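Limitations

Structures in this collection are predictions, not experimental determinations, and the ligand pose is part of the prediction. Treat each record accordingly. The example that follows, with zinc ion as the small molecule, is included so readers can see exactly what is and is not provided: the inputs are given verbatim, and the output is the predicted complex.
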Amino acid sequence: MKKPILSLVALTLLTVLTLAAEAKPIKLLIVDGQNNHNWRAMTPWMKTQFEATKMFSVDVSTTPQRTRIPGGLNKEQRAKAIQAANQLNAKQWKEWRPAFDKYDVIVSNYNGQEWPAAVKADFEKYMKNGGRFVVVHAADNSFPNWLEYNKMIGLGGWGGRTEKHGPYVYYNEEGKLVRDTRKGRGGSHGPQHEFTIEIRNGDHPVTQGMPAKWKHGRDELYDSLRGPAVNMEVLATAWSPKSKRHEPMMMVINYGNGLIFHTPMGHENGVALQCVGFITTLNRACEWLATGKVSTKLPGNFPTADKVSVLKKK
Ligand SMILES: [Zn+2]
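Predicted complex:
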């Protein structure tokens, strides 16, 4: 009778170990610190939504910020103040070096100054070695001249992006994905409005079970993004009244052994970020990036084809 008892012990141990492994949270790092959006409010909101799933532990790494130069200075005082601010900024950047490889997924809420060369090199290495990265809204405005970053995000906007950065990518009326190499600037949007997210691949873990069309809370609909768009799949689009194209709203990109999820949704702290569709998309993207699957069903209050669903702030 010894054998069965031993097996039972082994089995119990295995179960305990498996449960322990499953209970281990996915480690997220949100990077912020500069953005033409209110990152100080956006990051805590996203952090709260991640933590509410009980799946993630979330750290935040905040970059240095530019010092504001006060008004009312004469020319000489102003020059001095700028020099002092630049010196302080350079010193602070030297001290900012996040340990990317301690995290399962990096989430960018950053749109600002270039990172130091050493940090860029760290990040490229992390990604090439199998890192996981989520790009939210204006994070795709960042670093127009950092080629590897542009490969990671697939498409970007503003910052002088043109045909030199890559094609426009969108779905046409026939449901065909177009890579449009015509000349022109990258990045644009019209007035904020509620718009419909159209799922183009409903078999992907992130989109699985989502209605084929769902209404997103009032947001900025980015159009005419451009970039290398290599090894990129578009999972969902939205029709832009401005560009008259079906613009990518969810993208997955392979970069080396790394994997990226990019959504241009999420303008500003408010309805766009409180949209249950947006929150679900972000939570699922992070789980999928870290584990290769999505374990949660859609929440009961997920938006429908004609009804937005916005989470109230407590
Ligand atoms: Zn915006």
